[in-house]
Amino acid sequence: MTEVKTEILTLKEAAEFASLHINKNVTTSNISYLINYGRIEKKGNNGTVLIEKQDLIEYYENYYGNREANWKEKLGSDLNWALSFENLKEAETTKHVHRLHPYKGKYIPQLVEYFLGDHTDEFKKQVFFQKNDIVLDPFCGSGTTLTVAQRMNKNFITITLT
Q: Are strands 155-158 and 134-137 parallel, antiparallel or unpaired?
C-alpha cells in the first residue's frame, strides 16, 4: 500500500500559493477567513496554523467552478453572469464612495456604469441614457449612482433624506 504524502502549507505559503493558483491577490487574512468559516480545515496544533495544499485547491476549484452554475440553477439560465463582476478585485468594486461609511443597500459602481453606458450586448439590448438625459436617483444612499453619473458626464438629480 502506497502512502499518499500531503503537502502542508503555512498561512503565508497558502496565501502565496492561492494567489498564483487563482491569479488574484490572496492574503493571509483571506486564508484565515476560509479557516474560521469552515471552508478549509485547519491543521496543526499549539497555535500553529497549517493548511493542506489539496484542501485549498479543492476549495478554489469548487468555488470558481460552480458559482455560475449554482446561481443559474437558483435564478434561471438567462442570468447574465458578466454582471456578477466576479473577475474584479474587491478594491475595484469598492472604489469611489464605498469606503466612506457602511451602507447595506449599496451596489458596485460597475453595475451603474453598465446601465448608464452607451453600449449594448446580449443582455442589454438598448441604450437607456442618451447624451443630455438626466439620471434620477430618488433614493441616494451612499452616492454610487451620482458619483458614476458625474464621472460619465451625465446630468443627474439625487434625493437624500436625513
A: parallel
